[in-house]
Design goal:
The chain is an all-alpha fold. It is 82% helix and 0% strand.
Length: 106
């Protein structure tokens, strides 16, 4: 009889856990849907970041972060420009051949 009571108790606990899991999964799905909607309204992931920063940070801090992001993009642009110039220079140069210089054993 004790085994039967124990089995019922375990079954009841399992049912409770399954209900709680379903609730958590539903809440997670709702949160993901809200995040997707917010991202779509904000204009993609960067727009969503801007929306969050606008809600959380003061205007002066947002300005500094925006300037820093722009500087990082300008740095990447200058690297790409340098690589393009390097490729263009090498394309116009004839390939250098190795020269063998004999060495005397003396």
């Amino acid at each position: 009889m004790a085994d039967t009571d124990h089995a019922r108790e375990l079954a009841a606990r399992l049912d409770t856990l399954e209900l709680r899991l379903a609730e958590v999964e539903a809440k997670a799905a709702e949160a993901e849907a809200r995040a997707r909607d917010a991202e779509a309204r904000a204009g993609g992931p960067l727009g969503l970041v801007d929306a969050v920063l606008t809600a959380v940070l003061p205007a002066e801090a947002r300005g500094h972060l925006r300037t820093a992001r722009k500087e990082q993009l300008l740095a990447v642009r200058s690297l790409v420009d340098a690589w393009i110039e390097r490729v263009d220079r090498k394309a116009g140069e004839p390939r250098r051949r190795r020269e063998t210089i004999p060495l005397d054993d003396a």
